[in-house]
């Protein structure tokens, strides 16, 4: 049985690497598609749903951090798996929105414009990076490799929290420019 462990680890690393590359590439391709799919006007409300999802994810990340500081491992695990699930739901909703709708341009002027674009660019760059860290953190936790999980979350947690919170801030800044 010992000989199988490195094979499982190698396969898990391959899946994590493939997903970490495929997700941002797929999102970039979808953003570049000019011909949008018409699924109806309900899709115009997805950015608002995404703002809610990111808000919930941010709260769950903070609550999960609190639980692990309290050594409440069961509550921490449940909370972090919920945050991971909301992150996956966000990704589906985000892709669906951009598959069906043009991107909304930011209309703000003055000092808020560079602030918005700094937050947006840092959010996008780190959202690409965080996928690999989060997938590894979840894998290590679920496979019982707690010391590796702890090492990974030193990076995953602050990046994920930043991405989640800046997602909410970017949404609030662009919200006035949505048509729905």
UniProtKB/TrEMBL annotation:
InterPro entries per record: DUF420 (IPR007352)
The name this protein goes by in its record: Membrane protein
Top-level lineage group: Bacteria
Organism: Spirosoma radiotolerans
Regions crossing the membrane: 12-33, 45-68, 80-100, 115-135, 155-174
Keyword field: Membrane, Transmembrane, Transmembrane helix
Chain coiled-coil ranges: none
Pfam assignment, any one: DUF420
Glycoprotein recorded as keyword: no
């Amino acid at each position: 049985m010992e000989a199988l462990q490195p094979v499982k680890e190698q396969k898990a690393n391959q899946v994590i690497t493939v997903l970490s590359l495929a997700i941002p590439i797929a999102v970039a391709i979808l953003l570049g598609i000019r011909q949008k799919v018409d699924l109806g006007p309900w899709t115009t409300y997805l950015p608002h749903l995404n703002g809610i999802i990111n808000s919930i994810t941010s709260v769950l990340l903070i609550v999960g951090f609190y639980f692990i500081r309290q050594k409440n491992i069961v509550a921490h695990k449940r909370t972090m798996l919920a945050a991971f699930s909301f992150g996956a739901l966000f990704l589906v909703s985000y892709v669906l929105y951009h598959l069906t709708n043009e991107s909304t341009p930011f209309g703000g002027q003055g000092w808020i414009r560079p602030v918005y674009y700094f937050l947006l660019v840092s959010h996008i760059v780190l959202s690409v990076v965080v996928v690999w860290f989060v997938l590894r953190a979840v894998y290590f936790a679920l496979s019982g490799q707690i010391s590796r999980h702890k090492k990974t979350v030193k990076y995953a947690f602050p990046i994920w929290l930043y991405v989640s919170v800046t997602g909410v801030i970017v949404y609030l800044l662009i919200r006035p420019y949505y048509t729905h």
